[in-house]
Amino acid sequence: MKRPLLEFTDKGIYCAPADVYLDPWKPVKKALISHGHSDHSRWGHGRYITHKQNVPIIRHRLGEIEVTGVDWTEPVHIAGVKFSFHPAGHIVGSSQIRVEYRGEVWVFSGDYKSEDDGLATPYEPVRCHTFITECTFGLPAFSWRPQKEVIDQINTWWAGARAEGRTAVLFAYSLGKAQRLLSLLDTSIGEIYTHGAIENMNEVLREVAPLPPTRRITRETQKKELTGNLVMAPPSAHGSPWIRKMVPYETAAASGWMAFRGARRRRAVDRGFVLSDHCDWEGLLKSIRATGAERVICTHGYSEIFARYLQEQGYDARTESTQYEGEMAEMKSDEPEEEAS
C-alpha cells in the first residue's frame, strides 16, 4: 500500500520524504508553520519555516528561535519535495501549506477564512488532490453575516455605552481578532484603550498592518479616562481584578461561538457579536469545492459530522485527530496579564 504524502503522527503532520512536520505539537527538528496561534506554533522545534509576515509574530511569542520567512508561493525544496505558502485569510501572516511530490499535491489549510476582512491577505483556493481542512464551525447552524453588519452592531453598542457614561469592554483574542476589530471600529466615537497583552501584539503588527492609535492601560491610567471609551481585552481578563478600573462598564465578546444562544451566558457578557476568523458551514464547502480535491481530511471541530456530509456528496472524506483548537483558543491569552490598580 502506498504511503500517504502527509501522515498524522503523535508529534504532528509528518512528510516522510522531506522528514519535516507541518504545525507539529511536539518538538521536532524542522517545522513548517501555518500561523502564529499557540495551537499551531509551539516552542521547542529546531528550525521553523513560515511566511515572512508571521516571523515577527512567532518570534514575539516564542523568543529566540531559528526561523526562515518566505513569500507567498515562493518554493521551498526539501529532499525533492516542493513546499509553498499560500494565503489562508485567517489572521495576518496565516498560510495554507502546499506540498508537491512526484506529481501528487496535498494542501494543509491550517485555519482559514474565505471572507476578506481587509487586514489579512485574502484566502486563495489552491488546487490539489488531497485537502486537509479544519471544521471548527462545520455545522449548517453556523452562517455568518457580512462583516460590515457586525461591525456596525459593535459601533452602535459602543456609542450607546458612551451615551450612558459607561466604558465598553470588548473581549477578543490578543492575536488576530483584536487587530481585525481595531482596524474596523469607528474611532470617531471615542478613544480605544488596550490591555497589555493586546497592545504588545499591536506593536509587533503595526509594521505590517494598518491599525488605529490605541492607548495601553497601565497602573497610572485613571478611571475617568476610560469612561465612554472602548477597552479591548483578552477573554482571560474578564472577572479579574484588572477590570475593576472600568466600572461602570458593559461587556461584549466577538466570536463565532456567539451564534449559540448559551455562549453569551456562559461567558457572562452583556452582548455577543458573531464574528469569526474561521469559515462558516457554507464557506467550508465552497472552499473545498474550489480546490478540486477528491480526498478531504477533516480535523479539529465538528469533523465527524462534516466528514459524513462530504461522503454523502461523493468525496473520499475521513477524519484525523490533532491537537489544534480552532476558535476555542480565543478563550486563552498567550500573554501574562498586566494588572492595573
Verbal overview:
It is globular and about 70 Å long. The chain has 341 residues and is of the alpha/beta class. The chain has a 7-stranded mixed β-sheet, with helices on one face. A 6-stranded mixed β-sheet has the order 1-2-3-4-5-6, with no helix packed on it. The chain has a 6-stranded parallel β-sheet with strand order 14-13-15-12-16-17. It has 8 helices and 19 strands. It has helices at 55-62, 147-163, 177-184, 196-205, 223-226, 261-266, 281-291, 303-312, and strands at 7-8, 13-15, 20-22, 30-32, 47-51, 67-70, 76-78, 81-87, 95-101, 104-108, 130-135, 167-171, 192-194, 215-216, 230-233, 249-254, 271-273, 295-301, 316-319. 22% of the residues lie in helices and 24% in strands. The model is unreliable at 333-341 (pLDDT under 50). The protein has 2 domains: 7-141 and 277-325, Ribonuclease Z/Hydroxyacylglutathione hydrolase-like (Metallo-beta-lactamase, Chain A, 4-Layer Sandwich); 147-273, Rossmann fold (3-Layer(aba) Sandwich), CATH 3.40.50.10890.
CATH class identity of the largest domain: Alpha Beta
Number of helices: 8
Strand order of the largest sheet: 7-8-9-10-11-18-19
Quaternary class: single chain
Number of strands: 19
How far is the first residue's CA from the last residue's CA?
A: 64 Å
The helix content, as a percent range, equals: 10-25%
Order of helices and strands: EEEEEHEEEEEEHEHEHEHEEHEHEHE
- The class by helix and strand makeup works out as alpha/beta
CATH topology of the largest domain: Metallo-beta-lactamase, Chain A
Q: Percent of residues in beta strands? A: 15-25%
Overall pLDDT, averaged?
94
